[in-house]
Amino acid sequence: MNDDQDLVRRALRGDQGAFEMIVRRYQQPVLNYVGRMVRERELALDISQDVFLKVYAGLRSYRPQYKFSTWLFKVASNYMIDYWRKKKIATQSLDHGFDDGEDCPPIQVAADEPSVARQYELRELRGKLEAAIAELPPALRELFVWRHVNGLSYEEMAEIKGIPVGTVKNRVFLAKEMLKTILEGKP
Amino acid sequence: MSCLTSGLIPERIYAYLDGEMEEAEMRALEAHLASCPACREAVAARRRIAEAAESLPSFEVPDGFAASVMARIGPKAARKPLMRRPRAWAAGAAGLALAGAGWVLLTGRSFSDVVLDASRFLWGNVQGLATLAAKSYSYATLAVKVLGKLADQVLEGFKVLSSFIGPEVQIACLCVALVLAAAGLALWRHKLGVERNHEKP
Q1: What value of ipTM does the predicted structure carry?
Q2: Which of B66, B198, B200 sits opposite A20 (nearest CB)?
Q3: What secondary structure does DSSP assign to B90-144, as a single string?
């Protein structure tokens, strides 16, 4: 977004109003991402603030040839990596195979349900999904949230993480299958 | 097309749901779905999860969030250099003029007396600074002399040491020292590079 580049330029010239506009523009996507990574509202707010401070401090290292939102999510992602490291949360290897859980009973879905019932079911599923997302390993959770909550493209995610697009697709697929298995295991 | 639940991998279901499937393959899959309730169910289950994920509620951002971030950044970071702030210069000059006028009024002295006092005060400070500079210079000269002597002693020590150690050992020691220095430099550069790349996409 060229508007972002303009705001960054103004912020670099010392215009704090411009940086405040950047914060206002990205506070919701950053909080949605961080919130689903840590699942604690107050902690998510603190971390999101820290992320914006890091963005401000590192604004000079931002290269305009990249999309600003991609760079911002990279800063946020690096912050989260440091956070997990400090918390000493073991990151699960992504190379191992994954049991696709075909033994579990499938979620029962009828194609043409009445709208109200469907809405109710969707609401219930959302609640279960929030809990299931929290059970994903951080590396997979991050990609799933970027794809399905933040709406990032596979290409953007690949650029943020510095890995091939195919790898990102595989990991998102793995996350979705894991979620399916977790949901099927829940009463 | 083989049955999804008995062989066709879920990757194809996601490719179908993401609209990344070839037209012909998609038509074949849809034809299969029309006749296979198990596959219909497998697709529908994954679609519902994707729908639920995309409609997850946003975390509520408090009204003062951006203001809190800006408060933590503080006004200092955005402050322009003094040279580029004519208002600050004007305010400073006006303040000095006001202070001078106030002093004249309060003490009842003439303006020329005040100017004379100010110049005496300034001259006294200049003299003090000159003395300080001269002392600093003499200390710096002394430090250079001491360091020079120390370097001479170290050099002498090396000479004495080299008379005991053979030339092969000297060369080996030099090589080890160079390798250690190069490794240290490379490690430092790598660390710096990692820190810099940390924020770059």
Answers
A1: 0.76
A2: B66
A3: HHHHHHHHHHHHHHHHHH---HHHHHHHHHHHHHHHHHHHHHHHHHHHHHHHHHH
Residue pairs spanning A and B at CB distance below 8 A:
128
Partner residue facing A180 (CB), from B49, B62, B198: B49
| Chain B interface test: which of A148, A150, A181 (most B C-beta within 10 Å) | A148
Task: Answer whether 0.90 is exceeded by the pTM.
Answer: no
Decide: A55 and B73 in contact? Cβ < 8 Å: no
Task: Give the residue numbers spanning the domain of B188.
Answer: 166-201
- Residue pLDDT, tens place only, B115-135: 788 788 889 889 899 999 999
Residue A59, min C-alpha distance to chain B (Å): 9
Number of structural domains chain B divides into: 3
- Domain boundaries A115-185, corresponding CATH code: 1.10.10.10
Nearest residue in B to A112, CA atom: B44
Give dist(CA A53, CA B173) in Å, integer. 48
Query: Confidence band (pLDDT; 50, 70, 90) for A29?
Result: very high
CATH 1.10.468.10, applies to A2-87: no
Distance CA A110, CA B171 (A): 83
Interface test with A, best of B59, B79, B84, B85 (most A CBs within 10 A): B59
